[in-house]
Automatic annotation (TrEMBL):
Enzyme class: hydrolase
Native organism: Daucus carota subsp. sativus
Active site: D466, E475
Descriptive protein name: Endoglucanase
Family: Belongs to the glycosyl hydrolase 9 (cellulase E) family.
Extent of the signal sequence: 1-24
EC numbers: 3.2.1.4
Catalyses which reaction(s): Endohydrolysis of (1->4)-beta-D-glucosidic linkages in cellulose, lichenin and cereal beta-D-glucans
Keyword Electron transport found: no
Length: 495
């Protein structure tokens, strides 16, 4: 097991998995001067990283792989998913290093991929179609999950306890592919409203390129949101140990209801949803300040999204969300009167030891998106007596995602089943549930490089263990990568 002490600049490039770090750097190197920043990597380097970040999603695909699949160590998997309930749930994404399909993080991943395309698609150039394909792989699955049975949303495929007792390729899965759902009698407003958000955001992505598909997504989003709002309850309560402790809805479901309504409003401009937002934003603290944006808590993202409507049109009643957005942004800026974030000695945002980089990538997307909204309205972020312009927000985002270089020195033992085991093309014979652990416990590097993956990241002292058994630091996840797609797209178009 290798323990590395890394500055975040190096850590972030390393966690793109195809980028390099250098042990010659120290945490102090993180605080680079403006001259050093200007001599950093070119837009072409960020474009290459963007391509790799999208390749990661191809490595996470479940279902029948298309002819243009570029990640060649993967093959078809989960082709009977849904059959346990006599429905078709083939497709979608495995959320992380396991072979499960969890609806809440998958929907959140799809929403943020869509948001990345909506805000920064114009900067993606030759990667735009790959980004749309990544969105569509998620939205296609969510459509199936939402329309298979009336007043029902399928939210998970695979028994987590059975899956986690095995270490095998998705192509070899011989664990039970149990199917779980929320319904009118067993509600799940959080996962349903997030699914509605994902479908609505995706509808915006495809509005010009595929209008009929876009309309189907939007109409389904509206129906799923109505279901979420009518049958209220947390899916953690309905599904209990099946989703907990894996993806418990700790924040409840009010934040997702507001998030879902906000995305449908963006897609429709229907004043009914604006009224819903203005009325329900005050219910049960859904519009309270919160400083952690993730697959569980959507409040900061909702406020940033709604601030766009206020900044662009001055809609009465939405100025509150500009204030809340400022509070969130100010909490991240060192030196701000409202500063309350924690950073590692090297300068990396630190929220917790489990998959910390999910918060880093998500905050980077919010910083860049809010900066874009401020630019459009010639506005600033108000932090008590101080103000910060959009350039300050972009600089902070870049510090969290600045790349040091490309090379061959990257994590070798990522906590990921398909990556760690030999490909079915290299070793066609079936590798059973227990037999795969020889690869899990091996000191050798993973058999397949999962290009573009961002893993959980270092601890609060910038230490990173390149250890397959340390899933908190070494496991990648779709919801870590999704917001970074937008950040990379932005930086690929700037110098």
């Amino acid at each position: 097991m290798a323990t590395l002490h890394l500055c975040p600049l190096i850590m972030f490039s390393m966690l793109l998995y195809s980028l390099a770090f250098s042990s010659a750097f120290t945490p102090q190197d993180y605080y680079f001067s403006s001259a050093q920043e200007k001599s950093g990597f070119s837009p072409q380097d960020y474009s290459s990283a963007l391509e790799k970040s999208l390749l990661f999603f191809e490595g996470q695909r479940s279902g029948k792989l298309p002819p243009n699949q570029r990640v060649k160590w993967r093959a078809d998997s989960g082709l009977s998913d849904g059959s346990a309930a006599n429905v078709n749930l083939v497709g979608g994404y495995y959320d992380a290093g396991d072979n499960l399909k969890f609806g809440l993080p998958m929907a959140f991943t799809t929403t943020l991929l869509a948001w990345s395309v909506i805000e920064f698609g114009s900067s993606m150039q030759n990667q735009l179609e790959n980004a749309r394909a990544a969105v569509r792989w998620g939205s296609d699955y969510l459509l199936k999950a939402a329309t298979a049975t009336p007043d029902t949303l399928y939210v998970q495929v695979g028994n987590p306890y059975h899956d986690h007792s095995c270490w095998e390729r998705p192509e070899d899965m011989d664990t039970s592919r149990d199917v779980y759902k929320v319904s009118s009698s067993n509600p799940g407003s959080d996962v349903a409203a997030e699914t509605a958000a994902a479908l609505a955001a995706s509808s915006i992505v495809f509005k010009q390129s595929d209008p009929s598909y876009s309309e189907k997504l939007l109409q389904t989003a509206i129906k799923v949101f109505q279901f979420a709002d009518k049958y209220r309850g947390s899916y953690s309560g309905s599904l209990s140990s099946v989703v907990c402790p894996f993806y418990c809805s700790y924040s409840g479901f009010q934040d997702e209801l507001l998030w879902g309504a906000s995305w449908i409003y963006q897609a429709t401009q229907n004043p009914t949803y604006l009224s819903y937002i203005q009325y329900n934003g005050h219910v049960e603290g859904a519009d309270d300040d919160d400083y952690s944006f993730s697959w569980d808590d959507k409040r900061p993202g909702t406020k940033i999204l709604l601030s766009k409507n206020f900044l662009e049109t001055g809609i009465e009643g939405l100025e509150l969300y500009k204030t809340h957005s400022d509070n969130y942004i100010c909490s991240l800026i060192p030196g701000s009167p409202n500063f309350q974030a924690q950073y590692t000695p090297g300068g990396l945002l630190y929220k917790g030891q489990g998959s910390n980089l999910q918060y880093v990538t998500a905050s980077s997307l919010l910083l860049l998106t809010y900066a874009k909204y401020l630019d459009t309205s010639h506005g600033v972020a108000h932090c008590g007596s101080a103000t910060f312009a959009a350039d300050k927000l972009r600089a902070l985002a870049k510090q969290q995602s600045y790349m040091v270089g490309f090379g061959n020195n990257y994590p070798q033992k990522v906590h990921h089943r398909g990556s760690s085991l030999p490909s079915v093309y290299a070793k066609p014979g079936h590798i059973s549930c227990g037999d795969g652990f020889q690869y899990f416990y091996s000191s050798s590097p993973n058999q397949n490089i999962h290009v573009g993956a961002i893993v959980g990241g270092p601890d609060n002292n910038d230490n990173f263990n390149d250890d397959r058994n340390n899933y908190q630091q070494s496991e990648p996840a779709t919801y870590i990568n999704a917001p970074f797609v937008g950040a990379l797209a932005y930086f690929s178009s700037t110098t």
